[in-house]
Automatic annotation (TrEMBL):
GO terms for biological process: proteolysis. It comes from Halanaeroarchaeum sulfurireducens. InterPro entries: JAB_dom_prok (IPR028090), MPN (IPR037518). Keywords: Hydrolase, Metal-binding, Metalloprotease, Protease, Zinc. The lineage of its organism: Archaea, Methanobacteriati, Methanobacteriota, Stenosarchaea group, Halobacteria. Pfam families: Prok-JAB (PF14464). This is MPN domain-containing protein.
Amino acid sequence: MRLGSRPPVVGIAAETLDFAREAARDAHPNEYLGVLQATPSADLDGFRDRDGVVVTDILVIPATKSGPTSATMRRHLVPNDNRTVGSIHSHPSGVLRPSDEDRQTFGAGVVHVILGAPYGPDDWRAFDSEGERRSLPVLDVDLPDPESFFDFTQEDIDEELE
């Protein structure tokens, strides 16, 4: 891999895509918008032998505004780190191709997902930074339980602070 390049995005976790489809349904008739974050394949059981990253998380940026035909986020609040790999948003119209406005925002990231109403298993497409359709396999990945994030004690905190 050359200096400054990103590892390839090898897929999206099925659970992550399901979460996004549900969020898009909940936001309908307004657009849903989030930031895609990835985990190195080497950190995921069953994918340790693959080179690259898997989309495992979606961040919803505070103060994101959404309406029936567009959604905007405060770009300065998007993490500028190696985990951020692209964007995901819905088209309540069901159209599964990027608009000119979408293409203008695709430069930041390597994969961008559009979800279309009615947000079923086949109602989505992935695109590259140029707005061209790309492959993004849906992978059966064991993600950590979100509740485990809060599974700590005061003793754990004290130990971390030492």
